[in-house]
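Running this now, will post back.
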Amino acid sequence: MKIYFAGSIRGGQSDTALYHEAIMHINETDTVLTEQVGDLSHSAKEGSFRDDAKIYDKDTAWLRECDMVIAECTVPSLGVGYELAYAEKLNKPVHIFYRPSKTNLSAMLKGDPYFHIHPYETKEELLAMIDEIRQ
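Update: finished.
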């Protein structure tokens, strides 16, 4: 399967290491199209983020190509919210993960019956839940 993994970059990078581990785990059996989300050496302020139109074109192409969207939404991000709405428009399966002890997930996500919402607390829980949805 081709997986679009969404996580905060410009909205805050405090969970990048967690994204990296989740992406590496998914890549054991499937293909993550958006590995840069978990790139520990990547900074949201680096020059590679300057060409916003190219980022938009690339990301929306990956959304059209993917089989499923997995989003980690503990760190709020306008871009991730846009990606989720775009995926819904394309009728892509969308699974949203978040840690309730760290954030209050947006009502726009929790209230949309299209999205599959998965609260978790530990990395181990997250990885096990990702395995369940990919079966």
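The longest strand covers residues 2-6. More later if anyone needs it.
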